[in-house]
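Hello,

Following up on my earlier ticket. Below are the three sequence lines again, exactly as submitted.
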Amino acid sequence: MLGGPVSKATEGAGGLTGMWRIRRPEVDNSMCTKCHLCWLFCPEGVVRRGCKGEIWIVYEFCKGCGICAEVCAARAIRMVREV
Amino acid sequence: MIATGNHAVAYGVKAARAEVIAAYPITPQTQIIEKLSEFIEKGEMRAKFLRVESEHSAMAACIGASACGARAFTATSSQGLLYMSEMVFWAGLGSFPVVMAVVTRALAPPWSIWNEHTDILSQRDAGWIVIMCESVQEAYDASIQAFRIAEDRRVRQPVMFGLDAFSLSHTSERLDLIGQEEADAFLPAPEGDWKVIDVQEPTTYGNMASPERMMEIRHSTMERLKESSGVIEEAASEFSRVSGRQQAGLVEEYRTSGAEVMLVVVGASSGDAKDAADALRDEGVRAGVLRLRVIRPFPSERIRAALQGCKAVAVVDRDYSFGLGGIIGQEVASATGAGPFNYIAGIGGRDLSVMDFAGIARDAIRRAEAGEGRGEIWWGIKGSQEPSR
Amino acid sequence: MRNLTDEEYLLPGNAACPGCAAVMAMRIGLKVLGPRTILVIPACCMSVVQGHCPKTPSKVPIFNTAFAASAATASGIRAALEMKGIMDVNIVCWAGDGGTADIGIQSLSGAAERGDDLIYVCYDNEAYMNTGTQRSGSTPEGARTTTTITGKSEGKKDVPGIMIAHRIPYVATACTSYPLDFANKLRRAISMRGTRYIHLLSPCPPGWRYPTEKTVEVGKLAVESGAWILYEWAGGRCRLTGPSSGLAERSKRRPLEEYLRIQGRFAQADPSKIEGMKRRIDEEWERILALCKG
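Thanks for your patience. The regenerated structure is below:
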């Protein structure tokens, strides 16, 4: 629409939200039980699961809320202070 | 046929093949939506009728439908229009080509169901094209032209057209309809390419615009409103051809040539103003009538041209902006750079007759000859020192 | 969880606060709803979450509308799609508690009474969070907001109850800490036509005053303490769902204090106030259990 206020889907619509982070989640896949509760509960959708069930974090946008570490019963994710 | 203004609008909207109608009852508009509801229930018209719980929701539903590319219509009046106002702006600022009939009626308190134009004029800054009808026939004609203007690629803005409470809404006059084929040729089925909601091409409509973007968005709306003047004239001339009836575009000039006094009028009482001009001309007073059919975009150039060389200009306002003056009077003043005599008349449905218009024209000449400047006259107010007739 | 796609319809890097339960639920909700979905969003936190034009995190269409107008806007969208013969699209209002319980209740009630074909999800963070935590009709008793600094003295408006009174096909409550329960309820709602309503309790770290990582735990405590009851109402029948189905007996519930103490908004609630809150919760349980008995 002519000059209309229409927006298209893109990552980072709110900016590089990883910059907001004070603490960073670090995943130890050797301790991971592949329950994927971190994936389920991550508000941002920055916890990704691979074909073997392994987990990684998209740090570009992870806001560091710490929910993934909190819901991880195996304690495979720990929050580390950003320097 | 013989029909009321309200029924004329319903016939027009049927001919225009509106697809979604959402409306809420309010006197004196209700017959429009009753008739449309009847058309749909009898299977004479294919449309979805949403019997919503408020005018706010009526316009919200029209916007939702229009955002999907559908042809949407509603009608309201007075309090209903004000209650709807947030969404009226949403439609205008969002460039959704919705069409709305407004049966103009005074605002409360105290309660009044009678005619006044303050309601429709209160929405003049909302990004809508605003048309005011003179007759039952014109209400029908406008209801078809409105969709064509609104949906035109160069415009894509909503259109509201006003008809005066009772003197048009409930008065039966002769009405000529155009055939459905002619209507379809004049107004083809909506392309709907203004749609902003589409699961095939998903977008987000209307999220936050920063100060870096907002001004350009408003600027483009401004340009389309400007552009609409030509589109309105085109629609009028094309509809004149289709209907065989001469259509007014932005303004109608009646016996304006050589006029020493000009009555500037809006809406249904324009006919009375014209009769007054005829009577005055018979008596040797060179009176003319400039009827503003379109209020937005305001036809400043046409007004300037028509009023040039006129000794006395009498703008008759059936509305009021408290703390300033008559709304049309102020706008004419700003368009011409000269102060007209601004007659506030017919408020709350007070009679405004041929006699009144003749009296106003004579009063304006007297004031002009006495060298009075711009002035505001509450015509016919009781207990006033002003001469009434 | 296997039923949930890895496809993200709400993309990372949106403007939500860290630990936001509302986007957590929208992310899951969109996985269930799928690409043939139109979201209608009134003024609420979700208007901010979308970020600035011309960017948006949403891969499904969003139509932003005025605060009071989400249900009516959705009704208009449905009418237009029906006229155009498009029948396989979910039209979903996604509104906050202010836009639902307060300013938007008229248009919601109108749409529900007409039976318009839409799903309405109220994500309830129990105050006007977008404007900085002012009291809403959905704020619970005792909660501190910026307009009730000594704690709200009235109880929470029962919007699901109001929706049940409309006799619509489906009403459910949910909580963001039980995403699979929420997903199941959305699936049931999608399988029906008419107006369907889900009231989703959605904890809010800044508004409820707890650390961001506690979002899931706070929501779980709301349910396990019985302060928030999970149920669904369909076809004239009500049933408890998830953990709530085992909490009909008061003794099975965790002490309310555990739910209150984890949040700052209830810090000033004294024991007598807490007793009052417990009484309200008991009354609510009696009402829902009676509804379940039919």
